[in-house]
Write a structure and sequence with these properties.
It contains 6 helices and no strands. With 183 residues, the chain is mainly α. The protein has one domain: Four Helix Bundle (Hemerythrin (Met), subunit A) (Up-down Bundle). The radius of gyration is 17 Å and the shape is globular.
Length: 183
């Protein structure tokens, strides 16, 4: 199969499956109002979608791998590690908020830096892998991923505004959505 055709299929899969994730926010007025079983289903589906997209992305990078200077590769690995760290930091900070019905806005840890740190980490990590592999298709995928995750973040924020009202609006006014403020 042609690499560009495979790339189009992978991008299409990413767009479709990540939009399924957005449904959990658009189909209900509040994800927090879901039963524990429904939350487990949606979180499991979310994890499955993310993992399958990661596997396809690694496969894409392996097919479009181009040797680059060792310093560029090191920069790519640093970006990848930073993205992964941001994801895990966000997961650690958010871990109980998904299943504990406290109705409390999480604005600590990485959520002080950006409103969607796990999405930010995914974008940074994907771009880091593209740099590491010298993959132009990986860089394009990273850009498409940023657009799709921004759209999903918008869907999440509709639910968060309905759930937290003024508190979320104030938080959103201070903290950027995906990219941290640069000093």
């Amino acid at each position: 199969m042609n690499l560009y055709f495979e790339f189009i299929l992978i991008i299409s899969y990413m767009v479709i499956t990540y939009h399924i994730i957005a449904l959990k926010y658009r189909k209900s007025t509040s994800f927090s109002g879901f039963t524990r079983g429904a939350k487990i289903f949606w979180v499991s589906l979310h994890v499955f979608i993310v993992l399958t997209n990661i596997i396809l992305y690694f496969w894409l990078i392996s097919r479009d791998f181009n040797p680059v200077h060792p310093i560029i590769r090191a920069l790519g690995l640093l970006l990848f590690a930073a993205g992964l760290s941001f994801i895990f930091w966000g997961m650690y900070t958010l871990r109980k908020a998904v299943f504990v019905p406290e109705n409390k806005l999480v604005a600590a840890g990485p959520f002080k830096v950006v409103r969607h740190p796990m999405y930010s980490g995914g974008i940074i990590g994907a771009f880091g892998l593209a740099v590491f592999g010298g993959s132009l298709l990986g860089a394009v995928y990273s850009f498409a991923l940023a657009v799709v995750l921004s759209h999903i973040a918008d869907a999440e924020e509709e639910e968060l505004r309905a759930r937290f009202g003024k508190e979320y609006l104030e938080y959103a006014g201070k903290v950027p959505k995906l990219l941290p403020h640069m000093l």
